[in-house]
Specification:
heterodimer, A: alpha/beta, eight-stranded mixed β-sheet, 22 helices, 26 strands, B: mainly alpha, two-stranded antiparallel ribbon, 19 helices, 6 strands, globular
Chain lengths: 695, 487
């Protein structure tokens, strides 16, 4: 049965949609005057920061707004029928059958108590009433389509037996079981690793073509939208601010917010001096505190008083482009091609002497098979294997790798939460690998500090911001009296550019970016010389990321701090780091200056990683390298080279040495190390993954 | 003196109340049926942002429910107000309402103050946003005030232990046969098997509960927290051992344990005193560690603080566990305790046993809750941040983990006071621990039970009192949980 045959016209037509949530205190408008249409076979991206209402639109399409949510204006038409006029039975028939949705957390979308096969078979059995045998055949077909190995075994397993990437593929398979006309993807890859994400995105794209499904792709990542969608719609604070085809919006943007968004994300092709990051000033307005007129007005460079804040602004068509609309009064006056006014160029701090030296650091964990009584077999998990590097004063060393590569373990050993199994860590030529944190003196502890990933978790929710910083000062032995420390605490708030009044606030009164700043202030309480930043900006919104990144770099310049920047985001790594270390399964596979790592010759893993990063720039051409399979478990690493199970260059190495020998460290150029069996001439033949297309 | 009827001259309200309650019951049934049968109501949004429901049948039922409820409440208030004004001429209800006058006044003042300042009072203030929480808190505070004023002899009409001849098993409202000067003329809720006033005994019983239940629960929490935090935080062998011990205590039948603890032979060996000595030391450890971990970086502030707090705590502790100059005084041997001239108060042996047993059986459950919460919270980044700046484990447990586990703990605290109240009732019912003539609710119910088929009135008031207090605590816990989840 083909659900597309009997209707031609837009699959989904949202017209002037407004959605509000009703609380005890007030009505909170979540989406206002939102229009978009999705043509058959078209993929439309919905881009915006968290809280801009993009997920609410998706829930509105599913008519699943909960008890407090309500559509207060406009219509949502699916294949020409108004969804809000349908009865509960009709809606139930459409959901999962004609409109399918894929959520962010794959594990939360699957029933953990049911086998995969049964969950997949349910879809056609409920919606189309087919028999169990046919349903099984269809399930098998779809699981093969989403390129999962050994489909029959997959159907017979429970969700927890699969990896995150495999689970997300199953969720996609489930959505495709009924061959829906419209597929809504709500941040489908946010919870996945970069290389896995690239594979899933590739899959979604191919399947969209194969099944002719229309897609509504919700994401905060402009690069991903560029790779997957035909058209996109940028949202800000509940409104669509610009919509049009990918090329129109990316290359001829007509709204200041879109422009600001693009300027605040680092692009790997661009140089940080010619194209510095420009943070969007101010904060995202709360839904009930939106300004009059243009919502973006207070943060906009082109704001004109009396005009932009006078009355509600409507979408206007951009002349000359196909279905390109913008919600800006001044779009025809603004010179969109004006170069970015480059602020004061700050000299990068001189890289100084070696502060930290790791030499053959190893960290193994023993995992007992039977936790309660001990004994039994113990397995060894090699979390870090022969880690060697040096870090200098006022240098940024980026540590790149996907989950399970051992970067967190390395941070723990450095901080003293764990002691090393073997090798040494030298801090100013003192050995600290065997000194747990309780035995370190206050100065050493204060000198090596950490900034954490999750801003919502980094501060104790039941202590005021000032108290938490003062506590750190007390522990590091800074200041002689309470008044002294209070003064120092206020200075630290100045350092991270937070108003002093924040000292008395509770963490829940702060936004994510502000919390992260407090976390940075706390880390610098003891005049830290080495700061381990564990993905400090990955959980923040794009417009805030740039500001926090800049803050970190500025403090680094002033304090000559050594920054160990752990990240999986290669764009930001390229933007701010001096040297890069790529890790895979506990091994350092490549180490060199940023330019060396980002240009060939690469380690095969670095090459794949570079190719996997979505880049929001239409002028960049990327080689597509999709890694097969998942990252092996550290419990059970492959023999020989850790990367050999997914490496595309394996055939270039004679005698199958990849499978039997751990590769030696080759030094290619000055300070550029690669842990690979590939001969030099083959490495030299590698082509750059990212190329800027000729203009 | 004439015997009092239930409502006296305000009897005209009775048919009205019956009507209002009947209507309310009916509309609740209709409302429940309608929510199943009638279709989902369509809400429409007005231009000013308010919502209107279009379904008129539903609106009608809602209105009926609301008005019948309001009418019932208004009538109940009318009984009380008229009772306060008219006293005994409004029958037993009126007389009781008048006796409770200090309680009503305190409740009104408490509620007026709390609602006026609710935005500044944190979680306690938010309680007044939730009707359920307000009702629960009202019930609880009613019994708390009753206990306090009862102890001050403001509410009681007779000595709860005095027997007046001729009043044995008399029905509520019976006048005293030979009225003496200054004596209240009626047994408002009748006389019990030993001719004592049921009303006064019920009021006095509230004081025993209000004294013991929250205090015992607090001790159980201190023990549970002091052991649960390290078990959850360190994990490993310590956790295995402590959890095993907790399971051991939980697996033992509670009532049997009580019987064992109060058996004279066991009391004679001093086991309850040893248990008291061990269990009551936990709050001191808790306080000491709490303050030391926080202020050790500032020794000149820490040392005097610790000396002061621990000194007072230790004194209270020794007073608590030593009686007549001894901590343990058995026939064969004795251990010296605080000399009598320093001993602040003596806990009667029976109460001490009750206290110890309640703490002993409650703390394993608290231990498990705290351990679970600690296991969850210790994975947070702020705990890692504390570790990486070199905080000691006890600081992390008590100042980073415990404050963030407070939500579930406060709710559990309220529920657990309820359980403790029931436990106290159970102990009294079996005559364990407390002296036989004690007016506590458990004992009174047990005495009333013996003649239940002939005389209902001696057993019913304490049973209803117990029910309403525990119900109030559960509603309060519900309200707190609901409000702490918001925001």
């Amino acid at each position: 049965m083909n659900k597309l045959a009997d209707y031609d016209g837009p699959i989904l037509e949202i017209d002037k949609l407004s959605i509000s949530f009703f609380t005890r205190l007030r009505e909170i408008p979540a989406v206002m005057d939102f229009s978009v249409s999705v043509q058959p076979g078209e993929a439309v991206g919905l881009v915006g920061e968290s809280g801009c209402g993009k997920s609410t639109v998706a829930l509105g399409v599913m008519q699943d707004l909960g008890k407090n949510g309500r559509i207060v204006g406009g219509t949502i038409k699916f294949k020409g029928r108004d969804l809000s006029e349908m009865t509960t039975e009709e809606l139930r028939d459409i959901r999962g059958n004609e409109i399918a949705m894929i959520y962010q957390e794959p594990m939360a979308s699957l029933n953990p108590a049911m086998k995969i096969g049964k969950q997949l078979m349910e879809v056609p059995m409920i919606h189309e009433g087919v028999g169990a045998e046919e349903a099984y055949a269809r399930a098998l077909e779809v699981v093969t389509d989403v390129r999962l190995p050994d489909p029959e075994r997959m159907l017979n397993s429970f969700p927890h037996q699969l990896s995150g990437g495999q689970q997300q593929r199953i969720v996609i398979a489930m959505a495709l079981m009924s061959k829906p006309a419209l597929l809504i993807l709500d941040e489908p890859t946010t919870a996945l690793d970069v290389t896995v994400e690239a594979a899933v995105v590739e899959l979604v794209k191919d399947l969209g073509k194969k099944y002719g499904t229309s897609m509504l792709f919700i994401s905060h990542n402009l690069g991903l939208v560029l790779e997957t969608c035909d058209r996109l719609c940028v949202m800000y604070s509940g409104e669509a601010v610009e919509r049009g085809s990918i090329h129109d919006v990316f290359d001829e943007m007509q709204h200041p917010y879109t422009q600001a968004l693009f300027r605040s994300i680092p692009l790997p092709g661009a140089d940080k001096n010619s194209r510095p990051l420009v943070a969007i000033p101010g904060n995202f307005p709360l839904p009930h505190e939106r300004p009059p007129g243009c919502n973006f007005g207070p943060r906009c460079d082109y704001f004109e008083e009396g005009r932009c804040d006078a009355k509600d602004i409507l979408m206007e068509a951009v002349p000359g482009n196909d279905r390109h609309h913008t919600r800006c009064l001044k779009f025809q006056e603004i010179d969109w091609n004006a170069p970015i006014t480059v602020g004061e160029q700050k000299e990068k701090g001189e890289i100084g002497r070696t502060v930290l030296k790791m030499d053959n650091l190893k960290k193994y964990y023993e995992v007992a098979a039977n936790a309660l009584f001990g004994g039994g077999e113990t397995k060894v998990v090699k979390a870090n294997e022969t880690l060697s590097f040096e870090a200098h004063e006022s240098e940024t060393l980026a540590i790149v790798g996907e989950s399970g590569c051992g970067k967190s373990t390395f941070a723990k050993v450095l901080m003293g939460l764990e002691t090393a199994t073997d090798g040494q860590i030298l801090l100013d030529n003192r050995n600290i690998e065997d000194v747990p944190i309780e035995e370190r003196d206050a100065k050493t502890v204060g000198e090596v500090q950490m900034v954490f990933q999750n801003p919502f978790d980094t501060l104790n929710p039941s202590m005021t911001v000032g108290r938490q910083i003062i506590r750190a000062l007390e522990i590091f032995g800074v200041g002689d009296s309470e008044a002294d420390r209070k003064k120092r605490m206020l200075e630290l708030l100045d350092l991270v550019k937070l108003p002093r009044a924040f000292a008395d606030r509770m963490p829940r009164q702060l936004s994510g970016g502000q919390k992260q700043r407090v976390g940075i202030a706390r880390a610098f309480a003891g005049d830290a010389r080495i700061v381990v930043a564990d993905e400090p900006v990955s959980a923040l919104d794009v417009s805030v990321q740039a500001a926090v990144t800049d803050l970190l770099m500025e403090i680094q310049r002033e304090h000559k701090t050594t920054l160990l920047f752990i990240s999986h985001d290669l764009s930001i790594v390229r933007y701010l780091s001096d040297r890069v270390m790529v890790m895979y399964l506990g091994h350092v596979v490549e180490l060199g200056t940023t330019d060396q790592v980002f240009a060939p010759p690469y380690h095969p893993y670095t090459e794949a990683l570079l190719s996997a990063v979505p880049i929001a720039d239409t002028s960049i051409e990327k080689q597509h390298i999709v890694l097969e399979g998942d990252i092996p478990s550290a419990m059970n690493p492959p023999p020989g080279c850790p990367f050999q199970t997914r490496c595309r260059w394996k055939s270039e190495v004679p005698d199958g040495r990849c499978e039997s020998h751990v590769p030696p460290v080759q030094t290619l150029a000055d300070g550029h190390q690669v842990k690979c069996h590939l001969a030099e001439d083959i490495l030299a033949k590698m082509e750059p993954v990212i190329k800027i297309a000729a203009e | 003196m004439e015997p009092l009827t239930w409502t006296g001259s305000i009897a005209f309200l009775n048919p009205l109340l019956a009507l209002a309650l009947g209507l309310m019951a009916l509309s609740i049934v209709v409302w429940m049926l309608a929510s199943i049968v009638l279709p989902e109501d369509q809400m429409t949004v007005n231009p000013d942002g308010t919502l209107t429901s279009s379904s008129s049948v539903r609106n009608l039922i809602q209105a009926a429910l609301r008005y019948s409820f309001l009418a019932s409440v208004a009538l109940a208030v009318a009984y009380i107000v008229l009772g306060i004004v008219m006293g005994t001429s409004a029958g037993i209800i009126g007389a009781i309402a008048q006796q409770f006058l200090p309680v009503w006044l305190s409740l009104i003042i408490l509620y007026a103050m709390s609602i006026a300042f609710k935005r500044k009072l944190g979680l306690y203030g938010k309680l007044f946003d939730s009707p359920i929480g307000m009702i629960g808190f009202g019930l609880v505070m009613f019994w708390v005030f009753t206990g306090i004023f009862g102890a001050l002899d403001l509410i009681v009409t007779h000595d709860p232990l005095a027997q007046i001849s001729g009043m044995k098993n008399k029905v509520p409202g019976t006048p005293l046969p030979n009225l003496e000067d200054g004596q209240y003329a009626w047994y408002l809720l009748g006389g019990d098997n030993l001719a004592r006033d049921v009303f006064s005994r019920m009021v006095k019983g509230a004081w025993i509960v209000v004294q013991i239940a929250p205090l015992a629960t607090m001790f159980a929490f201190m023990v549970g927290i002091t052991l649960g935090l390290p078990a959850g935080y360190y994990g490993g062998r310590l956790d295995t051992l402590l959890s095993f011990l907790a399971n051991l205590i939980l697996a033992f039948p509670v009532i049997l344990l009580f019987y064992l603890l109060v058996t004279p032979e066991i009391v004679a060996t001093g086991v309850p005193n040893y248990m008291a000595a061990v269990l009551f030391i936990f709050p001191i450890i808790f306080l000491g560690v709490l303050l030391n971990s926080r202020y050790y970086t500032r020794p000149n502030f820490r040392t005097p603080l610790l000396i002061g707090v621990l000194g007072v705590a230790l004194w209270l502790y020794l007073s608590l566990i030593s009686t007549g100059g001894y901590i343990i005084n058995t026939d064969s041997y004795s251990i010296w305790g605080l000399p009598t001239y320093l001993d602040l108060f003596n806990i009667p042996g029976g109460i001490l046993v009750v206290f110890v047993s309640v703490v002993f059986v409650n703390s394993p459950t608290v231990f498990r809750i705290v351990r679970g919460l600690a296991l969850d919270i210790k994975t947070r980044d702020y705990v890692a941040a504390a570790q990486t700046r070199g905080e000691g484990p006890w600081y992390i447990m008590l100042w980073e983990i415990l404050p963030n586990a407070r939500g579930p703990l406060i709710v559990d605290f309220c529920l657990r006071i309820g359980y403790t109240t029931i436990l106290l009732g159970t102990l009294g019912f079996f005559g364990l621990g407390l002296p036989p003539e004690s007016p506590d609710w458990g004992s009174t119910i047990n005495e009333g039970r013996k003649l239940l088929s002939i005389y209902l009135h001696p057993a019913l008031p304490p049973a209803l009192a117990l029910l309403s207090l525990v119900l109030g605590l559960n509603l309060l816990a519900d309200g707190l949980r609901e409000e702490s989840l918001k925001d």
